[in-house]
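Risk register update: the risk of archive-format incompatibility is retired. Evidence:
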Amino acid sequence: MPENENVSRFAPPQAPTRTREVIPVSELNHAIAGVLERSFPLAWVRGEISNFTRAASGHWYFSLKDARAQIRCVMFRGRNQHVDFAPREGEAVEVRAVVSMYEARGELQLGVEAMRRAGLGNLYEAFLRLKEKLSQAGLFDTERKRPVPSHPRVIGVVTSLQAAAMRDVLTTLQRRAPHVPVIVYPVPVQGAGAAEKIAAMLDIASERAECDVLILCRGGGSIEDLWSFNEEVVAHAIARSRMPVVSGVGHETDFTIADFVADVRAPTPTGAAELVSPDRAHLLQAARRARDALAQCMDRQLERRAQHLEWLSRRLRSPQAQLQERRARVDNLARHLRAALRDTVATQRHRQDVLAMRWRACKPDVGVAQAALDRLAARMDAALERRHEREGQRLARVAGALELLAPQRTLERGYAVLLDQRGRALRSPTELRAGSIVEAHLADGTADIEIAGVQAKLGAF
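Archived output:
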């Protein structure tokens, strides 16, 4: 930033006007606090924690310092409850804060809104970038995950010989499955070049194919301590392993790239050992239960077979007796068959006779039917004649009534019909106008009449 921009940005507040040359300290501190908060944007600040205090209200008070300077800080309870670790004296951290002033004392301080371990931000960003890259490459896909064998013949462990996780894994395997051989592939799990050595050892174990499942483990630690398991080279080595890989890195809350690529993720190294090893005590107990169930099943089968054999022995007879019994049974069946044939023939013959008799009874008599038909025809002709007479009489009655109601008959009785020039019938004297011409229809003809005058009379005659 140019020098003149620094000058304009951090310029002090203007001097008070002549009308108010003396101002209280509180107003001065308030003005300074306003200038600081407006001038310094929210930013990340790195330093070591010093004089850390947890107040009864839940707020944190501490100082951040480096080799040349320090500054007081405050982180209120609403903010510090989101910090995922317990800050310690002398620990290097990065805080996201705004520069402000504690006006009551006139002390410069940082108002902290977020806190993380120093370097965690860059490492976490690198972790997220690699996670997204490997996810798009398909290394995290569920389809490529392989199941862990329930009864492995040999178990492989890739870890450091000096790691506490090594002792936990071997102790768990010895307790749960002392009958399963364990092959240890020693490799450093922390420090420079550890990731490449882990990947190389995974390739060696995969190439040798000496075990059915691999445990990749180490104990807990900071993100820097576990970073070897967040390297891309380790992720690809896990993905190309010939046998399933179980990841047991760190504590239950620790997640690494190796956890996402591995076929199974265990919360701890001990958990990884429990996942891959069958419990010998449970297996022996299940085997004893199966043995007892098998013995009981065999006893029941032998009892049923013995009972069946005894039943068969009671039914066993000499072949000659069986032959005589079968011959007698055949003779009996032959007699029944001949009797059944005789009965069937007699039954069918009787049924045929009955059907013939019923057919003769149902055979139609043409003469009788013709006589009935003639009688029906005569009745129909008589009915038609009577109906014709009734309809003619009804027609005559209707014609007479129609004649009585005909308009011509009305005119013949002395009535007339008046129509205006448009052919509409005139029904009221009010429709007549002097000088108008109306058409009068009478019984013997029609005449046009000119109205000389109209004198309306109400009421009918």
